[in-house]
């Protein structure tokens, strides 16, 4: 046994028998010895944001939907034949997924704005030669866990410092029922080794907390299982996985449960046929210029080609309830998803009470919604935010800190966030983003409307989900400068 190797007592830790028989591989698992591939090295990019001197104006397009982009690469790699994808989000998170699927045997190329994927077929991915580094992407790591679990080879997954701090147990616990084995660091955290099974059993699982990521991971595992995989969710979550599975020829049965839940079932093993995919604009990315335009006086903007999946538009519904001038024009269907153009003008917002059942349809938009609430007239109560505690950071605590340091009054009662509304001028604080791209963008939006400048400690990680964010905002008149 090498001098650096030590026996482990917990089955949840990565044992020496699962690693290569040298110290170099162990160093890679912990982010050492292979910095070019296993550590997401990035220079911090602080930004001071001052109020926009004039209203935002113009027409723009936001990058492609991140959720659909991840799924298009994964499912195309599992399909038989050639898939062409246009509109793919080319941010760091999605590029990590592309790298992972290449490492698992798919051929993926890019020419101009079109991506071509030569799929391997369900169950035909191959063992990767190196650690799969998912960077900052929790979506990629969790969904890929489902795929890896039903392939008969060993693999290891890691990520950047933020992703390595996030628990994976809520995904690995149900997936283990199909016969796979997951070995993690203490607390169920990455790096994680996966011993997949070539004889995957179907899983029946009721989600304790609504989560599209957990649901999707189980469904993806079920593609190569023998029998019917069933997931019950207490509240309907985004259904991009179900939609895209159908697009690739998989029969997915969805039925309603009491109190708004759903039962999703598919029978495997399945055969998937390659189909071209058009990725719509990401509504979660559109949230930031939308809220900025609502808050900055004199603003009048259009955002073209935004995805309008009804399980993703909770923010739009909430903002309209707050009195936002937000209208949807030119509605159409592209690639199986509803799409439209959004017209947004500056509005005086009022406080709102957001029900917990709306959380799944706007889970990523709560930080920027909280910013909108801080400028609204009267208090707002955002209910049922438990899921925010396990995002890129503890997003509930980080959102509270973002608001408080800039003069807004908040209160957390259980999993509810109360924002008191604008009783005093806001701004003047320094926001700690904790490597969370959505917190950074929310802080920028706050600064554009605040009475005093807002300092953001790091905006580098915005590129993981919204490449060109600063340039897009400046094209609308934001006047941001590093």
Description:
The chain has 482 residues and is of the alpha/beta class. 29% of the residues lie in helices and 23% in strands. The protein is built from 15 helices and 23 strands. It has a 4-stranded mixed sheet with strand order 2-15-17-16. Helix 3 packs parallel to helix 9, helix 5 packs parallel to helix 8 and helix 12 packs parallel to helix 14. The longest helix is centred in the first third of the chain and has 13 residues. The N terminus is likely disordered.
Widest sheet, order of strands: 2-15-17-16
How many DSSP-defined strands?
23
* Rg from Cα: 22 Å
Ranges where pLDDT stays below 50 over 5 or more residues in a row are: 1-41
Mean pLDDT: 90
Total number of helical segments? 15
Work out the helicity level: 25-40%
- End-to-end separation: 51 Å
Largest sheet composition: 4 strands, mixed
User: Structural class of the secondary structure composition?
Assistant: alpha/beta
Residue fraction in strands: 15-25%
Shape: globular
EC number: 2.5.1.19
Keywords: Amino-acid biosynthesis, Aromatic amino acid biosynthesis, Cytoplasm, Transferase
Active site: 364
Family: Belongs to the EPSP synthase family.
Task: Label this structure with key terms.
482 residues, alpha/beta, four-stranded mixed beta sheet, 23 strands, globular, disordered N terminus
């Amino acid at each position: 046994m090498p001098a650096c190797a030590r026996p482990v007592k917990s089955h949840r830790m990565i044992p020496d028998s699962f690693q290569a028989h040298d110290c170099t591989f162990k160093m890679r698992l912990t982010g050492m010895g292979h910095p070019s591939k296993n550590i997401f090295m990035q220079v911090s990019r602080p930004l001071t944001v001052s109020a926009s001197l004039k209203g935002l104006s113009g027409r723009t397009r936001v990058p492609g939907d991140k959720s659909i982009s991840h799924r298009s690469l994964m499912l195309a790699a599992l399909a038989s034949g050639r898939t062409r994808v246009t509109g793919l989000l080319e941010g760091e998170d999605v590029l990590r997924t592309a790298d992972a699927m290449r490492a698992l045997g798919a051929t993926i190329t890019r020419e101009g704005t079109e991506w071509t994927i030569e799929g391997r077929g369900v169950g035909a991915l191959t063992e990767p030669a190196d650690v799969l580094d998912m960077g900052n992407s929790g979506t990629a790591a969790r969904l890929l866990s489902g795929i890896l679990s039903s392939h008969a080879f060993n693999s290891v997954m890691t990520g950047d410092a933020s992703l390595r701090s996030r628990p994976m147990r809520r995904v690995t616990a149900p997936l283990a029922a199909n016969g796979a084995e997951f070995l993690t660091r203490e607390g169920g955290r990455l790096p994680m080794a996966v011993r997949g099974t070539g004889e995957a059993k179907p899983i029946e699982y009721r989600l304790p907390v609504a989560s599209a990521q957990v649901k999707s991971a189980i469904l993806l595992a079920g593609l190569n299982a023998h029998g019917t995989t069933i997931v019950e969710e207490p509240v309907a979550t985004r259904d991009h996985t179900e939609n895209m599975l159908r697009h690739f020829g998989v029969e997915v049965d969805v039925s309603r449960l009491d109190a708004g839940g759903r039962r999703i079932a598919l029978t495997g093993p399945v055969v998937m046929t390659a189909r071209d995919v058009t990725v719509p604009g990401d509504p979660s990315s559109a949230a930031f210029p939308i809220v900025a335009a609502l808050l900055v006086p004199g603003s009048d903007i259009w955002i073209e080609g935004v995805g309008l999946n009804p399980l993703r538009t909770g923010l739009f519904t909430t903002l309209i309830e707050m009195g936002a001038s937000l209208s949807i024009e030119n509605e159409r269907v592209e690639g199986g998803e509803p799409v439209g153009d959004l017209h947004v003008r500056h509005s005086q917002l009022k406080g709102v009470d957001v029900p917990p059942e709306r959380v799944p349809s706007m889970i990523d938009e709560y930080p920027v919604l909280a910013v909108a609430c801080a400028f609204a007239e009267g208090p707002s109560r955002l209910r049922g935010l438990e899921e925010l505690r396990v995002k890129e950071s503890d997003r509930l605590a980080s959102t509270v800190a973002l608001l408080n340091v800039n003069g807004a009054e908040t209160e957390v009662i259980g999993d509810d966030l109360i924002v008191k509304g604008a009783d005093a001028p806001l701004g003047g604080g320094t926001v700690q983003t904790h490597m969370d791209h959505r917190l950074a963008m929310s802080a920028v939006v706050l600064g554009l409307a605040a009475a005093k400048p807002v300092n953001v400690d790091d905006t580098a990680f915005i590129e993981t989900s919204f490449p060109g964010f600063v340039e897009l905002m400046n094209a609308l008149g934001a006047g941001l400068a590093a």
